[in-house]
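Subject line: Sequence and fold of a protein, written as structure tokens
Body of memo: The sequence and its backbone structure tokens, given next.
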Amino acid sequence: MMRRSSEPRGDGITGFPFDAPREGSWRLSLPCTAAEARALAEDVSVLALLDEPPVLMTSEPDPAHPDIWRLDAYFEGAPDAALVAMIQALVPSAAGATPEIEHIGEQDWVTLSQAGLPPIRAGRFHVHTPANAGESIPADAVAFTIEAGRAFGTGHHETTTGCLMTIDLMKRAGLRFTDIADLGTGTGLLAFAAQACWPRARIIASDIDPVAVAVAAENAAANGVRTGRGPRRIELVTAAGLAHPRLRARAPYDLILANILAGPLIELAPVLAGALRPGGSLILAGLLDTQAGRVAAAYRRQHMRLAATLMRGTWPTLRLVRRR
């Protein structure tokens, strides 16, 4: 239960548990609308200027009231009045609400913010965190346990879900792949999903962040996925784009997955298209619907055609094919 106080703190914040220490992790909670929750999922660039930006999580506390949502912001250290005001400004509907602020001690607040994420179903894939690993899994599902926290790709963001659904649709369509690369792998989830669909394929997964590569290795072990070189294994490397000897040596690929951002995807167009075999598929995500046209145009200039677009809210997943 969050503690409230009607007595204002010295900096004017009400609802602050003012007898708590300032260090450690803190959570600020505010009501918000469904529309505001969607907007926060798309753009919180104002927070990018902060030295230690908070982690934001939106949730729907009661499905019977679909427009009443909740925003939780997690901080390392107690937020001051200016930071509380900045978060409150992100949800205009909460302008008159009293923020609930709780000291949650020395905890991994990135993981904590995602610990309550519900399982998701994307095509044949069922993805859950260890916190809900005991819940029933559909008999027809391919299940993965993905630890929330240190890397992107728990399956809950629309970009990751869109990629999972696209992988599922390609498998259902009878497409076969033998050489696969997952660029910007994050948690490793997309590489795991590709291996589940095409177990005989050679798969390599990379990320620019060595922490993400370590997380992917941990998640692989938790899901019984073997890593390293060799058949039925996923090779993990730290690299930006295809800038790694192993990534270049294993080209050309017949499937490349890249859930990154629109800017890097446009910049990498010549490199990614050049690493594909004729007839190979490229799955692109991490872009907004307003950016899809520019991304697709960059790849059309590289002799690729847009074969399919899957929309999840305002987040498209593009499947492009290299012309033969």
